[in-house]
Write a structure and sequence with these properties.
Length: about 100
């Protein structure tokens, strides 16, 4: 089981952007119930996810309308939410350092 920090980040985002709620809840439930030990394990679940350096993975949310950047600690089974935003907002950040 994964630990995700912090679900409140997801909740705050879907409260401001209700069209993302079901998508973020599904992502959260999938991550919580997965036993991802490597980025390749994540890619087996989310084939369109992009693996970046420093254990960061970018997920397409709602058909790539939104992006979620998560930093993984596979050894401790932790996921840290680093960014959620529109594709346009994502283009303005450096997902490798956020």
């Amino acid at each position: 089981m994964e630990r995700i920090f912090a679900k409140s980040t997801l909740r705050k985002y879907w409260e401001k952007n209700p069209d993302t709620e079901q998508y973020l809840k599904t992502w959260y439930d999938t991550a919580m119930n997965s036993d991802w030990k490597t980025p390749n394990n994540v890619k087996q679940t989310y084939v369109n996810a992009s693996v970046l350096k420093d254990s960061r993975i970018v997920f397409n949310i709602k058909g790539n309308t939104y992006r979620l950047v998560a930093k993984f600690n596979f050894e401790k089974q932790c996921i840290f939410i680093r960014f959620i935003g529109t594709h346009k907002e994502y283009d303005k950040i450096d997902a490798n350092t956020i």
